[in-house]
C-alpha cells in the first residue's frame, strides 16, 4: 500500500470531528506512575509517527505540550492524558487482578477504507500487571489458519514501543490496533481480546461488537 493511501485511511479513521473531544465512555484510571506514563506517551507518539498515523493536530499539540511539563502527581497527570487520548480509542480493554479480560466499545470513530490499513488506539487498564501479548480474534477476523468470505477483516494489536513483545505491565497504557477491511459497506465485526489461554471469560465480556463504516477506495 502506498504511503499516501495509508495517510488517507488514517485521516478517515481519526475523524474530522474529533478535535471537539467527545466524552469517552471508558473507565478512568486514577493513581499511576507518572514518569512511566510520560515515557509511554512519548513512545506512543514515536510509534504513530513511524506508522505515518499522527494524532489529530490539536490532540498531538496538547499532548506534546503536556509531556514537556513536570508530570507531578500521578492521578492528575493520568487524568490529563486520558482526557486527550480516550476519545480516540475504539476499544477499552481491562485486565483484572486474576488476568480476566473485559472489552468495551470506546468513543473512537470506526470509519475504514477498503483494502487500506488504518491504525486506531486501544486503551488498556492492566490491574493484573500482565506482560503477555494482547491478541485480537473473532468470527470476522482473518488469521493465518482461518480465512473465507465471512472473514473480511485483518486485525492485529501492537504494544508500544513497537519493538516490544508484550504489554508493559503498567496500570495504564495505549496500544495500537491495525485494521485492514476487504469488504465495503456497513459491516459489524466482533473483536475478542485475550492475553493467553484461560484469560477469556464470558462473565467478563472479553469481546465487543463494532459496527464499521467501510468506504470504497
Question: What strand line-up does the widest sheet have?
Answer: 2-1-4-7-6
Give the helix proportion (percent range): 10-25%
Can you give the mean pLDDT? 87
* Span of the ends, CA to CA: 12 Å
* Beta-strand residue fraction: 25-35%
Uncertain residue segments: 16-20
Radius of gyration: 17 Å
Structural class: alpha+beta
Question: How many individual β-strands?
Answer: 9
Number of helices: 4
Shape: globular
Order of helices and strands: HHHHEEEEEEEEE
Tally of separate domains:
1
Largest sheet composition:
5 strands, mixed
Short description:
With 217 residues, the protein is α+β, with helices and mostly antiparallel strands.
Question: Could you characterize what this model shows?
Answer:
The protein is globular, with a radius of gyration of 17 Å. By secondary structure, it is of the alpha+beta class. Helix 2 (34-50) packs antiparallel against helix 3 (57-67), helix 2 (34-50) runs parallel beside helix 4 (74-85) and helix 3 (57-67) runs antiparallel to helix 4. It has one domain. The strands form two sheets. It has a five-stranded mixed beta sheet with strand order 2-1-4-7-6. The protein has a four-stranded mixed beta sheet with strand order 3-9-8-5. 37% of the residues are buried. The protein contains four helices and nine strands; from the N terminus they run ααααβββββββββ. Strand 1 (89-95) and strand 2 form a beta hairpin. It has helices at residues 3-14, 34-50, 57-67, 74-85, and strands at 89-95, 101-105, 111-113, 118-126, 135-137, 153-158, 172-181, 185-194, 207-215. The N and C termini lie close together (12 Å).
Amino acid at each position: 500500500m502506498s504511503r499516501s493511501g495509508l495517510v488517507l485511511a488514517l485521516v478517515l479513521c481519526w475523524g474530522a470531528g474529533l478535535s471537539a473531544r467527545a466524552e469517552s465512555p471508558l473507565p478512568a484510571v486514577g493513581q499511576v506512575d507518572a514518569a512511566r506514563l510520560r515515557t509511554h506517551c512519548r513512545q506512543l507518539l514515536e510509534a504513530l509517527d513511524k506508522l505515518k498515523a499522527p494524532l489529530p493536530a490539536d490532540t498531538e499539540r496538547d499532548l506534546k505540550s503536556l509531556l514537556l511539563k513536570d508530570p507531578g502527581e500521578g492521578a492528575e497527570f493520568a487524568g490529563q492524558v486520558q482526557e486527550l487520548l480516550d476519545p480516540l480509542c475504539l476499544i477499552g480493554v481491562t485486565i483484572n487482578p486474576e488476568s480476566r479480560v473485559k472489552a468495551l466499545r470506546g468513543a473512537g470513530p470506526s470509519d475504514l477504507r477498503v483494502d487500506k490499513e488504518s491504525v486506531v488506539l486501544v486503551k488498556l487498564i492492566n490491574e493484573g500487571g500482565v506482560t503477555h501479548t494482547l491478541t485480537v480474534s473473532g468470527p470476522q477476523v482473518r488469521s493465518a489458519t482461518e480465512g473465507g468470505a465471512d472473514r473480511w477483516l485483518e486485525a492485529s494489536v501492537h504494544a508500544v514501543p513497537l519493538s516490544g513483545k508484550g504489554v508493559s505491565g503498567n496500570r495504564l497504557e495505549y496500544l495500537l490496533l491495525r485494521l485492514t477491511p476487504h469488504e465495503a459497506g456497513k459491516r459489524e465485526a466482533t473483536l475478542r481480546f485475550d492475553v493467553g489461554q484461560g484469560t477469556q471469560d464470558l462473565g467478563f465480556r472479553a469481546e465487543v461488537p463494532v459496527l464499521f463504516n467501510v468506504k470504497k477506495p
